[in-house]
């Protein structure tokens, strides 16, 4: 039988690692996972209790409106006033099945087959893979330390001059895998460039709320232009990755298309998750989530302080999110690439980290990503095991 070429996208290597972690844990091995991009602490207590209440209250869990429950979108309106000083309407928001669902809806609504959409490399691999699955052309913009691993206007102009017009650009700040952020000045310049060149800017803001003292100011793309698309989620700051609940800020010109597609693709975002997520906006939920960010900050500093003993190279500026992305350094003398190193570390010391090839198919074999959104005890133990392993 025929297999569609649209489905022939690379696997996400971190999922292979997670499968091996599960196997080792089933064998009672003492695995510490610094691999998957999810917070170990989980959702705030108010959210967990709300999820229990939903199941015991007898509430009818039918379909919601396509855009999602009005009370949750109302909370998001208040959230954007609180964090960004923006005055929005519930009509600006569409709730989705995770941020992934929002990306799919955006790509289907905004782009035609063959349209070229730029993204920083290294970058989150699902951007590239979802674009390929809808017959768009992902365009890697090489982004290194000189630009904080973020796109620049100069890089965009060079790409257009060399290969032709772009129809879209994906920005992530803080970014996965690097944790780097774009400065407000550069973000403004890119926003203006996109407007001038009729390029749709898609801003991935799922790591907002998770930043550290040295980071540039956090900025939402809608502070610059409401013709951009903003995508976010409850997965990271609120620690709800398995709830599969995200949202979009949708420009007026895309709303009919997004709504029509959403109604056909998913009908609505998960109803139970919507009801539970309302409790994420209590003062105690904000405070609990912020306390988790403080733990990430302590773990981040622990890891950075240990770099001389670990032997890795100079990391990307870990401005936000909960990642450190760094070269193998002296480990490159012993291992052919980061896949070999990560596999050996997992099998011998039971510490799981991610090879960079997921994020950069060209140079990622020389890099690894470490997730520090774990307990302080696990982070300390993982660092000790890695130091011992790297000295062998």
TrEMBL record:
PROSITE patterns linked: AA_TRANSFER_CLASS_1
Domain Aminotransferase class I/classII large: 30-385
Enzyme class, UniProt record, top EC level: transferase
Keyword Cytoplasm: no
Superkingdom of this protein's organism: Bacteria
Stored Pfam families: Aminotran_1_2
Recorded GO MF terms: transaminase activity
Record key words, sorted: Aminotransferase, Pyridoxal phosphate, Transferase
InterPro entries: Aminotransferase_I/II_large, AspAT/PAT-like, NHTrfase_class1_PyrdxlP-BS, PyrdxlP-dep_Trfase, PyrdxlP-dep_Trfase_major
EC number: 2.6.1.-
Statement: the UniProt record of this protein carries the keyword Protein biosynthesis: no
TM segment ranges: none
Cofactor(s) the record lists: pyridoxal 5'-phosphate
Family to which the UniProt record says this protein belongs: Belongs to the class-I pyridoxal-phosphate-dependent aminotransferase family.
Name by which UniProt lists this protein: Aminotransferase
Species: Micrococcoides hystricis
């Amino acid at each position: 039988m025929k297999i569609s070429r649209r489905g022939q996208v690379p696997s996400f290597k971190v999922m292979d690692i997670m499968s091996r972690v599960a196997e080792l844990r089933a064998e009672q091995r003492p695995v510490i996972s610094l691999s998957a991009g999810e917070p170990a602490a989980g959702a705030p207590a108010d959210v967990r209790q709300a999820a229990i209440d939903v199941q015991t209250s007898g509430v009818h869990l039918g379909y919601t409106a396509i855009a999602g429950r009005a009370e949750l979108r109302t909370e998001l309106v208040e959230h954007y006033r609180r964090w960004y000083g923006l005055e929005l309407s519930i009509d600006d928001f569409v709730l989705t099945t995770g941020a992934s669902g929002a990306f799919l809806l955006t790509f289907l609504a905004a782009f035609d087959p063959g349209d070229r959409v730029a993204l920083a490399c290294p970058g989150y691999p699902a951007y590239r893979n979802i674009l390929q699955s809808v017959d768009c052309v992902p365009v890697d913009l090489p982004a290194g330390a000189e630009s904080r691993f973020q796109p620049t206007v100069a890089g965009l102009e060079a790409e257009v001059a060399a290969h032709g017009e772009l129809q879209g650009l994906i920005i992530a700040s803080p970014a996965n895998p690097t944790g780097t952020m774009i400065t407000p000045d550069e973000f403004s310049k890119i926003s203006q460039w996109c407007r001038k060149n009729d390029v749709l800017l898609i801003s991935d803001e799922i790591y907002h709320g998770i930043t550290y003292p040295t980071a540039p100011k956090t900025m939402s793309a809608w502070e610059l232009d409401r013709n951009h698309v903003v995508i976010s989620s409850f997965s990271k700051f609120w620690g709800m990755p398995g709830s599969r609940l995200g949202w979009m800020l949708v420009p007026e010109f895309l709303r009919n298309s997004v709504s029509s597609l959403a109604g056909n693709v998913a009908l609505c975002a998960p109803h139970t998750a919507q009801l539970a997520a309302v409790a994420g906006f209590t003062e105690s939920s904000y405070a609990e989530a912020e306390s988790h960010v403080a733990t990430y900050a302590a773990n981040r500093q622990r890891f950075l302080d240990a770099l001389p003993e670990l032997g890795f190279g100079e990391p990307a500026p870990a401005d936000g999110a909960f990642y450190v992305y760094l070269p193998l350094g002296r480990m490159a003398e012993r291992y052919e690439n980061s896949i070999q190193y990560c596999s050996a570390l997992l099998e011998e010391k039971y510490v799981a980290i991610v090879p960079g090839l997921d994020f950069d198919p060209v140079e990622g074999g020389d890099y690894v990503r470490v997730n520090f959104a774990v307990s302080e005890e696990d982070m300390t133990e993982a660092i000790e095991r890695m130091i011992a392993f790297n000295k062998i």
